[in-house]
Each structure stands twice: as structure tokens, then as C-alpha cells.
User: Fold this.
Amino acid sequence: MIQTDILIIGAGPVGLFTVFEAGLLKLRCHLIDSLGQPGGQLTEIYPKKPIYDIPGYPSVLAGELVDNLMEQIAPFNPGFTLGERAEHIEKVGEKMYQVTTSKGTVHRAPVIMIAGGLGCFEPRKPPIPNITDFEDKGVAYVIRDPEVYRNRRVLLAGGGDSALDWTIFLADVASEVTLVHRRDSFRGALDSVEKVMELAQSGRINLITNAQAVGLAGADHLQSVAIKHKSGEEESVSVDEFIPLFGLAPKLGPIADWGLQIEKNAIKVDTRDYGTGVPGIYAIGDINTYAGKLKLILCGFHEGTIAVQSAFSYIYPDKKLSFKYTTVNGVQGLPKDEEAAATAS
Ligand SMILES: Cc1cc2nc3c(=O)[nH]c(=O)nc-3n(C[C@H](O)[C@H](O)[C@H](O)COP(=O)(O)OP(=O)(O)OC[C@H]3O[C@@H](n4cnc5c(N)ncnc54)[C@H](O)[C@@H]3O)c2cc1C
Assistant:
């Protein structure tokens, strides 16, 4: 059994940074994530994309930000249970929760910090009957390493930021890039839309609007995608890779059944401390909702910082919390949690 002060469900950027803020208060943390590596959306969806709105970093690659967060929390020796989904929660003492994962690993902590982001990742797939036959044989729903597409003929589909940004990026990597979108206007940032239009006008990409991918063909690997235009006309585009980027279906997963107040697929919280209304259970980052909520990394960092202050008072109601700047106190690490380290996978 793994025992800690704060059990964080979700090792995305918000869960990771919360380890740091908890560590400053001498609270030990253990993180559970269903993915095999930390970083959440940043690692899983856009590791090679630059982020521009992290304070103090004019630009940082998402993967680099995760590496930096891991370095920043290292002195606090957090434990990790990776590749396991947090499934069940139960109260086993006045101030003690028990969380069991999909692989049966048992964790106990007085405080649960839910930082589950969009929940368990499930990409939205286009309704093409044989699409699963080509998964990993030319069809991918996320781009982990753009180098895989070097000198390949790539067809992307979608009208949001992901589709636009990757189209721009892959124009310099792939031998041929086609973007298919079912409308003629895009949902993404204006700047990205303009860049895509420029690339199309200069002939560096092939842009097909008012159309959608409706069929896939190939033997061992994808060879072509059938495109149906709004007019009813169909054409076949020869490609090596098809990447539909239609976002992730927001699925809270097991957390939806934990008896918390859910609104629009997110957990309702009180902005005084990001508590869920259930004593000792907090929700931070993309997974929570409140008036004025913004799903930004920066906002999640703030929420985690506030929540651990409240968690400290919840765990130690008789101890006075003295607030100190890191510039004054430095970062005093915590000893490794031997039991957690030994049991976690
Ligand atoms: C393409 C793209 C570009 C973006 N660009 C920016 C940007 O420029 N700036 C910005 O601020 N934000 C950006 N965002 C949003 C940003 O990525 C999110 O706000 C951020 O990832 C939220 O962090 P989080 O830790 O709350 O959740 P996530 O990063 O979603 O991490 C949550 C983790 O919880 C895990 N999890 C969920 N349920 C369970 C469970 N039951 N058991 C175990 N693990 C579980 C998931 O596997 C996941 O790893 C972008 C998002 C995308 C998709």
C-alpha cells in the first residue's frame, strides 16, 4: 500500500507543479496517471509545440516544460504510479481516503487532489468504417514525433488549432501536406489560419475545404484516402499518412462516479480553495469548473498553489501556516518516501 499526504490524480503540468507547492509546506505527494509518462496533454498531444504564455518563458516547447517541472519537483521526491487509472475511492478513516487503480494498486492519503485534466484520453475519430484497421499503419490521432513524417505524404483533417498548427509545422518536414476541412472557415487562431492560407497560395500545401475524408484504402499500410466534396464529387488522394485531428472526447472516466458535483464534464469547485465540497478532496487544472474558468496551464498552477495551502490546514488544523517566499527559504527537499518508491510501478 502507498501512503502519502496528498494523492494527486493526474500527472499533467498542474499535478506536477502542485508537488512543488506542497513540498514547500513539507507535504509529501504521490501521483497516479493512466498514461505511461508524466506531462498530461503536453506530452501526449503536443510535446514539440512551443507554448508562449508561461510567465518568464517567451517560448518553451511543451515537452521541455514537462522536463523542467520534473526537475523542479525532484527535491521533493514525489512517488509515481504510472500506466494505471485511478478507479475507486472510499473513505477508510475520519481523514483518510483510499484510492485503488485499474491494476489494483492501493493508495491512502488524507487529501486527494484531482488534476485529471480532460479525463482519460480518447481521441475523436472520424466515422470512417475501416479506420481502426489502419491505426498504426498510416493512421494516427496524435502527433508524438513529427520526424516520423519526414519525406512522407501526409493528409491532415480538422479545422482547429491542432490541425492548423501541425499543417504549418509539417509543411517543412513532410514531402507533401494536404489539409482537409469540412467547412471553408477555421476555428483556430487567426494568425495560424493566415499562415495556412499563405502556404496554400504558394503551393506548399494542398488545402481542400468543404470536404471530408470518407474512406481509406491500402494493403499492409495506408495508400489513399477518399475525399467527398460538399458538391457530392469524390476524389482519391494518394498518401502515406492520415492524421485526423478532431480533438479529444472529454471523458471524465471513473472520476465521474466519485459522487462529486459535475457540470459540463468538469468538477465544480469553490474558488476560495478549489475544494469540491467534500472535505479533503480538491479539483485543480482543466478538470474543474467555476465562473470565469480558463483552461490554461498558468491558471492550473495558481489553483494548485491555493489548494495546497487549504490542504495543509485541513491535515494540520492546529498548526499555523507561516508563508515564506522561496527567495527567503530556498527549496528544502523532502526525504524519499521509501514505501511509495518500492511499491509504485
Ligand atoms: C494542442 C493544444 C495546445 C495547447 N496550448 C496551450 C498553451 O499554449 N497555453 C496553455 O496554457 N495551455 C495550452 N493548452 C491547454 C493545456 O494543455 C491544458 O490547460 C493543460 O494540459 C491542463 O493541465 P492539467 O494538468 O490540468 O491536465 P492534463 O494535461 O490533461 O493532465 C491530466 C492527466 O490526468 C490523467 N488522468 C485523468 N483521469 C485519470 C484517472 N482516473 N486516473 C489516472 N490518471 C488520470 C490523464 O491521463 C492526464 O495525464 C493546449 C492544449 C492543447 C490540446
